[in-house]
Amino acid sequence: MATYGPRIAALERRAERDREAFDPEAATADDATVYLREGAGQAIWLYVEARTGGRLVAFSPAELRALERAMNTWFELYARCHGVELAAAFSIRQAAELLLDTRNVLDTAQLLTHVPPR
Fold first, then answer.
1. Which DSSP category does 35 fall into?
2. In the chain, domain spans
3. Phi-psi bin for 116: left (phi > 0), alpha (psi -120 to 50), beta?
4. Which of 11, 36, 112, 113 has its CA 20 to 30 A from that of 83?
């Protein structure tokens, strides 16, 4: 069975580094896309990968919190790139379901955060 703990920890560390390095004065829409594709999308996909393909990986409560914390950090940075302060508290399952429905992490982020407004 695959272990996801090291991958989750790496995602969480990267999200924290991105948060620390974030410069609202320099943030662009392109940065927002990077936070989604290389950040939140990777976290969501890890969850999807673990829950599909005939297996059901049981994440520990700490792993699940870390994965959600990383994903939500990137959603917050995405919103800040659009000039919106957001305290993201989305569940990884909710995000995964939307990603599977939309097949696009940008649409998933917009539907969850309402940023930018439609």
1. I
2. 5-113
3. beta
4. 11
CB atoms within 10 A of CB 105: 24
Of residues 2 and 35, the one with the higher pLDDT is 35
Q: How many CB atoms lie within 10 A of CB 51?
A: 14
The H or E element that residue 6 is part of is: helix 5-21
Q: What is the distance between the alpha carbons of residues 33 and 51, in angstroms, rounded to a whole number? A: 25
Across the chain, the runs of DSSP E, i.e. the strands, are none
At residue 81's C-alpha, the angle toward residues 50 and 27, to 5°, is 115
Q: What is the token pair recorded at 78?
A: 């995405």
pLDDT at 1 over 60: no
Residues 6+ apart with CB under 8 A from 113: 75, 78, 79, 84, 86, 88
Q: Which two tokens stand for residue 12?
A: 């969480």
